[in-house]
Specification:
There is one protein chain. The chain is of the alpha/beta class and about 350 residues long. The chain has 2 domains: about 190 residues, Periplasmic binding protein-like II (D-Maltodextrin-Binding Protein, domain 2, 3-Layer(aba) Sandwich); about 130 residues, Periplasmic binding protein-like II (D-Maltodextrin-Binding Protein, domain 2, 3-Layer(aba) Sandwich), CATH 3.40.190.10. It contains 12 helices and 13 strands. The strands form 4 sheets. A 5-stranded mixed β-sheet has the order 8-7-9-5-10. A 4-stranded antiparallel β-sheet has the order 3-12-4-13. A two-stranded parallel sheet has the order 1-2. α3 links the parallel β1 and β2. The chain is elongated and about 70 Å long.
Length: about 350
């Protein structure tokens, strides 16, 4: 199903007509305006949106689509795509209408926003941030082993048992516990990853590892390339990696992971990410400032409705072969994200 959708998107272009008919309800634009006192307006009266630099091409297309579908809208846009690290601070201070990001908000940003406003920003998923493996391009966060390691895959729970303390099934410290034979049967598992205090590592631990403490044998290295090199030189190593291009190190391979025991081990290929069947989904996030009990800013609500429409999702689909490799949101998830705006 998804292969046919992507073929249609490529043929039909960014109009997204076929995408809208087959995947999501048709988009019905609602007239909307921005008040003169909106904090996210620039001195020239433009709507400012601050966010991830990988969105630059996509944001230009989103802004163009909004103006095309809202002919009565009198504002222009001022995208400032400087990186996810500036997105939440800009939203927090009110100078950005929303915070488009290619990763989840880090805890430091959440704490700072909550301390100022007394509540957390609302997180809306509009797609997926990567797929892979792709030659010369990044894959989503995941688990990597030495290419010589014969292990077929792990479950999420086994990942937790290897990397964290206090997992339900007890700790896994040796390859024999995973059924790996040969030279691995008598060897301990050597664990690598980024600094435990880094935002990406903390976010992964919170999202997928039940926020447990890493095991004492976890060896933190300063850069993803350092981790890749360590696993390449260590046949008994396993690593937790963020966004990473494994193709540059032939001696390392991404390890398929199953959501639960008895389910297939899967890599985050385009098809698997599209179907949201991967163990560690990496979303495209749009954070918005919405005080509990109050309505969403009408312009922000309308813009996000557009992002989650067939035409908006077609723009995301057009990013498949770019360096970023963004993927449209699974159609079954769109309704739930739209309800966050109610």
């Amino acid at each position: 199903m998804f292969r046919s959708l992507w073929k249609c998107v490529a043929v039909c272009g960014l109009s997204g007509a076929a995408f809208a008919q087959t995947a999501v309800p048709a988009y019905k634009p609602t007239p909307v305006s921005v008040p003169e006192n909106a904090s996210y307006l620039t001195r020239e009266g433009r709507v400012q949106i601050v966010g991830n630099d990988g969105w630059e091409d996509m944001m230009t297309k989103f802004d163009q689509l909004f103006l095309e579908t809202h002919p009565g809208f009198k504002r222009q846009f001022q995208p400032v795509m400087k990186g996810s690290s500036v997105a939440i601070p800009a939203l927090q201070s009110g100078v950005s209408a929303m915070a488009p990001m290619a990763r989840a908000m880090w805890e430091d940003d959440r704490f700072a926003f909550n301390r100022l406003h007394g509540y957390d920003p609302v997180d809306i998923h509009i797609g997926y941030a990567a797929f892979g493996p792709r030659e010369g391009r990044k894959s989503p966060p995941g688990i990597y082993v030495n290419a010589k390691n014969p292990i077929a895959g792990l479950t999420i729970e086994q990942v937790r048992q290897i990397f964290t303390e206090g997992a339900k099934g007890g700790s896994i410290t040796r390859w024999s516990q995973l059924g790996v034979k040969g030279p691995w049967a008598k060897r301990a598992i050597h664990i690598y990853g980024l600094d435990q205090g880094s935002g990406g590592t903390l976010a992964f631990r919170s999202q997928f590892l039940e926020d447990r403490t890493f095991v004492r044998t976890y060896e933190a290295l300063p850069k993803p390339a350092d981790i890749g090199d360590a696993v390449a030189e260590d046949p008994y190593g396993v690593a937790l990696m963020g966004f990473f291009d494994a193709s540059r190190i032939p001696s390392v391979r991404p390890l398929p992971v199953a959501v639960a025991a008895g389910m297939p081990f899967l890599l985050p290929t385009y098809e698997n990410v599209s179907a949201e069947q991967v163990a560690f989904p990496a979303y495209l996030h749009v954070y918005i400032d919405r005080e509990p009990g109050k309505p969403v800013d009408p312009f922000v609500k309308e813009y996000i409705r557009m992002l989650l429409s067939g035409k908006g999702q077609a723009i995301i689909a057009s990013q498949k072969d770019t360096d970023e490799g963004y993927v449209p949101l699974n159609e079954e998830k769109i309704g739930a994200e739209l309800r966050k705006l109610d």
